[in-house]
């Protein structure tokens, strides 16, 4: 190690040590568990239903999730206006005050300048963490890594809360570990790039400059194997997050059989959300009395047929005895 690199690492360590350990909702880091991506409810006329958004927070507390995240892909963040995202973030942080779930606010945008505005707003709200996707075009899988480096550096400077990077496309494990040395607030990754299970093992075998929390997505379809490899959490949709949270809680308590039983009850829904799209997850929240409808803003979303609704209702009736709320 050169003299210069030694002092650079010492400076980074000092900056990381200065990070706040507690967010506005009262929970100390590290963050772990099932952190559902909240879906965005809409009024029949089209605007965001902020009252239902607050109710979704209380629902997630009632069913025992460990945290919540908004807005991300399942929240249709790219179809929300700037003002809707600001009001939504304020609604969620206020609704979560005094409740169990930790709050992670999404600050991603198409450019660093706008992402910084969201990050500065989050800095004032003081959730437990922030998360940001890389700036991307729809279905983009290859990124300019230098542009991503500048983007996350700007976000990290705008807000001193713990930062999740959402890894997709060609964002490698090595790149994330290097970025941690340059962005002291980067403490978590939601990893959806490449083969999830292999990458968890890669992160666990690596030597990051400070502890790195590894979360995953993919609707939690490999949650059992993820936990076995040492993941710190998963970010599924909100609709059946209590079944995944139950699986997580059993696993952490050493009850592996009960964890697999709880996880098995989610399998029908996991297949259906792949077949029917996000609207099916919204329909389940409608069945659970959280949403007043199952609207989305995605013009490409296939409408639910009567048969599809019956299929979802059958799955819902099957798991109803195991739901927490």
Q: Key features?
A:
single chain; 325 residues; alpha/beta; TIM Barrel; 13 helices; disordered N terminus
Protein architecture, described:
The protein is an alpha/beta fold and 325 residues long. 47% of the residues lie in helices and 10% in strands. It has an eight-stranded parallel β-sheet.
CATH H-level superfamily title: Aldolase class I
Strand order of the largest sheet: 1-8-7-6-5-4-3-2
Spatial separation of the terminal alpha carbons: 55 Å
Low-confidence stretches: 1-27
Q: Helix count, per DSSP?
A: 13
CATH first level: which class? Alpha Beta
Can you give the mean pLDDT? 91
Structural class label: alpha/beta
Estimate what percentage of residues fall within beta strands.
5-15%
H/E element string?
A: HEHEHEHEHEHEHEHEHHHHH
Report the biggest beta sheet as strand number plus sense, adding barrel if it closes.
8 strands, parallel
CATH topology: TIM Barrel
How many domains is the backbone divided into? 1
Helix content: 40-55%
Number of strands: 8
Please state the CA-atom Rg, rounded to the nearest Å. Answer: 19 Å
General form: globular
CATH architecture: Alpha-Beta Barrel
Structure summarized in a few sentences:
With 325 residues, the protein is an alpha/beta fold. The chain has helices at 3-17, 50-62, 82-96, 112-125, 145-158, 173-182, 196-205, 223-228, 241-252, 256-264, 267-276, 278-287, 306-319; strands spanning 33-34, 67-70, 102-106, 129-132, 163-167, 186-191, 213-216, 233-234.
């Amino acid at each position: 190690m050169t003299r210069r690199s030694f002092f650079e690492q010492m400076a980074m360590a000092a900056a990381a040590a200065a990070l706040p350990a507690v967010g506005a909702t009262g929970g100390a880091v590290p963050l772990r568990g099932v952190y559902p991506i909240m879906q965005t409810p809409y009024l029949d006329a089209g605007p965001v239903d902020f009252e239902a958004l607050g109710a979704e927070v209380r629902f997630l507390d009632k069913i025992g999730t460990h945290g919540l995240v908004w807005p991300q892909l399942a929240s249709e963040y790219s179809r929300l206006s700037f003002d809707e995202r600001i009001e939504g973030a304020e609604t969620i942080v206020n609704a979560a005050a005094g409740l169990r779930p930790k709050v992670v606010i999404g600050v991603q945008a198409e450019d660093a300048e706008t992402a910084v505005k969201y990050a500065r707003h989050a800095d004032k709200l003081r959730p437990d963490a922030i998360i940001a996707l890389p700036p991307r075009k729809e279905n983009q899988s290859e990124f300019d890594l230098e542009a991503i480096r500048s983007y996350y550096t700007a976000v990290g400077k705008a807000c001193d809360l713990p930062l999740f990077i959402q890894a997709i496309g060609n964002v490698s494990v090595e790149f994330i570990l290097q970025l941690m040395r340059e962005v002291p607030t980067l403490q978590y990754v939601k990893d959806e790039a490449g083969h999830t299970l292999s990458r968890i093992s890669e992160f666990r075998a690596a030597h990051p400059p400070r502890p790195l929390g590894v979360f995953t997505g993919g609707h939690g379809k490999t949650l059992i194997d993820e936990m076995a490899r040492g993941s710190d959490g998963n970010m599924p949709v909100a609709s059946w997050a209590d079944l995944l949270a139950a699986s997580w809680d059993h696993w952490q308590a050493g009850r592996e059989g009960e964890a697999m039983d709880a996880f098995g009850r989610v399998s029908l829904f996991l297949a259906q959300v792949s077949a029917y799209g996000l609207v099916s997850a919204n329909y389940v929240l409608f069945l659970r009395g959280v949403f007043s409808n199952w609207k989305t803003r995605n013009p490409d979303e296939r409408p639910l047929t009567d048969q599809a609704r019956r299929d979802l209702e059958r799955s819902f009736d099957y798991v109803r005895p195991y739901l927490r709320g």
